[in-house]
Amino acid sequence: MSKKTLALLCAVCFIFSTLFFWHRMGQTATPEVRSSSQDLGRLCVAQVYPAISKGVEKEENGSDKKAADKTAKEDSQSAKENKKETSEKKQAEKRSEKKVDNSKPQVIIYHTHSTESYQPYSESNFHRVKEKGTVRDVGDVMTKELNRLGIAVVHDKTIHDRPSYNESYDRSLETITSLMKKYPTARYIIDLHRDAAAYAGNVGKTVQIEGETTATFSLVVGQNNANYNKLMAHAKKVSNKAEAMYSGFGGRIIEKEYRYNEYIADKCLLLEIGNNQNKIEEVENTGKYFARVLAEVIEEEK
């Protein structure tokens, strides 16, 4: 029998005897001991066949390295995708927020009935001198949204319906005439009101826009204005645009005999947002979405 064969037989006997011993021990051994038995088995193989052991270790290490490289690659790819998504969001935000040239306003918002208020501000039959909860609040929302879209706005909050409600239009005419002289670039004039529940079916009518409960609006056109046809055309354009952008949002157009100071500009709107049965949050939503509608109209008419 050659020395090589003898050495091989000895090695096999040693390995089997060792495995038999640890198998008997493993029945009562703790997990730590069992783990040690596996290590010892590897040690035995390494001592008898070091080349084979190195090959096994190399293969195991290679597999571990491949797994680690794969994980690292996946993490890197995920990081790149997250970075790209963040970058796209920032670009979208940048596109939606345009610079505003306040020296050349395009829109003037004012209020003939400045104290008109909404739920829950019901004092004085829904007329409130304090700004919170009134049409002036809604005007602020419109102004902010138009500014975000790159349109400069003058929002006048002068109270015209105190002390005499009947003289409101006389006082507001003085205000808007002065503002238009001061800001000749302003072509779009909005007299922002709210309707009264008694005239609107006693219900605060709403629509759902992008998951938000939003009060409806209406546009009042005075038939006794010399520029009636142009006023009506503008009102229809705004209402149609609102419907096109947000289904169900197009406002009804109400015609009345009075002038409502609308003769001052061909693109003048008497805008009524909601009524006194609407919550302030609902009409603020209207202000935001109406501003987006108006911004589209202005963009198309450049």
Automatic annotation (TrEMBL):
Compositional bias (Basic and acidic residues): 56-102
Lineage: Bacteria, Bacillati, Bacillota, Clostridia, Peptostreptococcales
Name recorded for this polypeptide: Stage II sporulation protein P
Keyword Magnesium: no
Keywords per UniProt: Signal
Signal peptide stretch: 1-22
Region feature Disordered, mapped onto this chain: 56-106
